[in-house]
Amino acid sequence: MTSPDLAALRPRLPSPVEEIADGRLGRHGVRLLLKRDDLIHPDLIGNKWRKLAPNLAAAAGRTVVTFGGAYSNHLRATAAAGRLLGLRTVGVVRGQELSDRPLNPSLARCAADGMRLHFVDRSMYRRKSEPETLAGILREVDAEDAHVVPEGGSNSLAVRGCRALGEELRARADVDVVALACGTGGTLAGLAAGLAPDQRVLGTPVLKGGFLSAEITALQKQAFGGRRGDWSLDDRFHFGGYARVPTELDAFAEDFEDRHGLAVERLYVAKLLYGLVVLAAEGAFPRGTTVAAVVTGRPFP
Ligand SMILES: Cc1ncc(COP(=O)(O)O)c(C=O)c1O
């Protein structure tokens, strides 16, 4: 088994940083930069590159098995990586009922990229990390020696991979605050560990519940042995929870696209940008602050 040649995929690293002039922040003395991780690779977009690259290397040619919902960006990125690197991939999808329906565009893309889709019911999906359940799933998909990547891709390899995002921003001494939207929190956990001591991270969770701080602390403990970096979360910008895109958010994103010519991914990036506009208006950033917002994804299709 040999490691796949990730360099042959020519990732654009470090990802570019762009300054944009937005009066809603500018009038409060806040300078806004966009850290364009969405430009790293056309298929392994944003944090997907940073999380998957170390996992693909660790898979060393073995089948990669991972998990996700019917619209998972992570499943699509894993499937694309399989196609590009010649790796066998299996996507374990939440929702047995989906198996008798036509594939939605996201799962159709996974299948077209050669991913084997394995649908499981929601109760089994919840138990997927229990050793017996996982072993059963791996047996069923005939991949008992697979490299298993958790839902959202946030294992310790991924968290350590995301530290490079922080290191790239550490090289930018003008950046005071790095802001990003969080799902599992794996990207934030790694990013925070790579920044300079005088830089801080602000995360905006897209899921409701207020449980994420503890999970990020646990991810940092597993990956680095303890809490790292200066980070905090603002739980006010989930807009009702995962995948909820109310009209107000959609209108905000459309307007941002018109102003700045950036395609705004709705489930994460739009919620972050909206949060930054609110925070600037609240005076949360002292005048003269430079905020770098991480563009972690791109709309699909
Ligand atoms: C576009 C986008 N942004 C942000 C995230 C959140 O990343 P994390 O789960 O590491 O918090 C995801 C999910 O992986 C995503 O698809």
From TrEMBL:
Occurrences of domain Tryptophan synthase beta chain-like PALP (ranges): 26-297
Keywords for the protein's UniProt record, in alphabetical order: Pyridoxal phosphate
Top-rank lineage group of the source organism: Bacteria
InterPro entries: ACCD_DCysDesulf, TrpB-like_PALP, TrpB-like_PALP_sf
SUPFAM superfamilies: Tryptophan synthase beta subunit-like PLP-dependent enzymes
One matching Pfam family: PALP
Protein name: 1-aminocyclopropane-1-carboxylate deaminase/D-cysteine desulfhydrase
Keyword DNA repair: no
Family assignment from sequence similarity: Belongs to the ACC deaminase/D-cysteine desulfhydrase family.
Cofactor(s) essential for the protein: pyridoxal 5'-phosphate
Gene3D superfamilies in UniProt: 3.40.50.1100
